[in-house]
Structure prediction request, 725 residues.
Amino acid sequence: MANHAYVSACAPPKECLKALSTPLRFLKGVGPKRAALLETLGLKTVENLLYHLPFRYEDRRRVKKIHLASVGEDESFAGTLVFVQKKFIPRKRRHILLGTLSDGTGMLGLVWYNVPPYMANTLSRGQALLVHGRVEWGLGGQKRIVHPDFEPIEAGEETDTEKILPVYLRPGGLPLRTMRRWLAQALADYAPSLPSFLPESLTRRQGLMDLNQAMKQVHQPDKAADLASLNRFSSPAHRAIVFDEFFYLQLGLGLRRKHRAALEGIAFSSAEAQLTRQMRGLLPFTLTGAQERVVGEIYRDMASPCPMQRLVQGDVGSGKTIVAWLAALRAIESGFQALWMAPTELLAEQHFRNLKGFAGALKIPAALLTGSLPEATKKEVTEGIRTGMTSFIVGTHALIQEGVWVPRMGLGIIDEQHRFGVVQRRALQRLVHWHSAAAPTLPQPDILLMSATPIPRSLAMVLFGDLEISFLDEMPPGRTPVETKLCGERERPAVYERVRTEIQKGHQAYIVYPLVEASERLNLHDATRMAEELRLGVFREFQVGLIHGRMSAEERDAVMRRFKEGALQILVATTVIEVGIDISNATVMVIEHAERFGLSQLHQLRGRVGRGQAPAQCLLVHYEAGSREARSRLRVMEKEHDGFKIAEADLEIRGPGELLGTRQSGLPDFRLADVARDAHLLLEARSEATAWLADDSNLSRPESRAMGQVLLHRWDDRLELGAIG
Ligand code: ADP
Ligand code: MG
Prediction:
């Protein structure tokens, strides 16, 4: 059996990293069965376990005497179980467990309903226990605690009960005590294998605690530690771990960026040539200041000989399409092809329809390439691209993967709407890799990414640390903001009436629900059930469609298409409606359980209406259960229409990973760090990483070597650093 315990702190990094990778079944006291249980939480290795930090701490430093117990307070008591009784209540079909704890000053009742067998077996008369929970009045005037947390006190440990105790998320059925024991074991055996290998000058400058010290402190805080800062994840120990996380990510991103800058790209001419000049004359409007600025930033990158990778962030409707089109023209007028990738066929078609007029006027051979084209047409189109005849191509990601060869590709535009986090830039990686694999001698094309998910500047700088970023932070003039109104559940009849009125005017409506299927526990209205209910009930004279994330892309596309064509008047949806989809006839959106959404998400959803001439409305239905806080949070939506400002408010209010939802946004899944909460640390880490790379651009100096190994260990699979070497 592998046993990497007791590696000394100065062991070579490789050995440390290997020890940390020890599967959990080898941790003393775990074994294969319970390792499988831990794996349900994604905890596979000792390292995973160590980074499974407490989500909360309990103050057990003050153990009270039972006669001083005060009803309504969370308190801890230590004593002996003087009475235990198991009871079965046939009517309710459940087991309850009753106990009495005595510490010589008084008696305290303990009650557990629905007792799991493992627990019933651990408690017996005479057992010394530390219990913790909310004191209440029981029957007969005895104070009691229902479902107390408890820990057996081992002989000789009586004085050791007064601690700050960590509380962990754990697999169902696993006692907290066991989880604590395993963590203590992991710390004892493996903490020495957890050096961060950060340069000493840096840790001193940043005032960072040693990583393995920090790890001990977060799992087993000193009795004197500040409970509040622990619970806010801002203790010095937390800070050290968070910094370490961020630093390595930034180091990885920095490397990626350096690597790219060293590659050979295309230096397009820096002056506007014929096509762009002609296009200016064709523009039906004047570009906004932001559009001009961003076009300038793109042109500057395109003129440079390094391959461009620039992300344009702009709110829905900020006019990204024309910006990207101007970039495409710059490539085309220099004799290259420009390829525009959209996430769905419908969006590809929409872009093509919008741009083909301009392409025609400028005599640019353009083509749309999607999977649903007839084979013969597809072949013809592919051929036109392959010979270099077609210089502007709009398509879906899928087609790129099929390997249509674009011999003179100068610019790739990826309109992915969101999902541009560092770990989800698959489309980009694929495009670039595919291109350079097929033609290693050709210069790398420039890439322009477009995202409709505004993210506050500071955050974006960091999350997209390896990209250049442009902010399209100004709306074209003359937009009427979507009228947004917060409604209570009881106002639903009126809400439905608004929907009906709009449809009777010939318009269409979206009704958005947070979930696909009913969840009893939360009592949420779900999309599937509600689509049925609305179809048969209040909206039975209308055509009601349904779209949700469990449907395949094709199924979703088909439903969207029917909605776009007007065959459906109402679309019941989860949050999957495409961000960029332009159905100008949809004028009203109802969002149910609005309190369940982040503000940014609500803003994104709202962006699907108000795209036409007619005024549009967004009705946010919130549930009474929602607190006053939730309501005042939602009120931001009534007043604010700027996506960047909303994102900032969201970040402030919701914090933890919720701004966009980790998965959707492609935020790297930090084990502990929280991008919103720890934004300042993130910036510090970024500047330290940048400074380090400025002196040692590929981590080749001896003092960087260990860091390089840690970096690969942590991020290689997600950042694909291996290729960078
Ligand atoms: P998005 O950033 O959401 O992709 P679009 O590029 O689709 O936005 O633009 C939204 C609408 O605004 C389009 O109808 C477009 O023609 C129009 N538009 C873009 N730029 C301007 C501008 N500078 N002035 C007026 N209208 C504009
Ligand atoms: Mg768009």
Notes: The chain is about 40% helix and 20% strand.
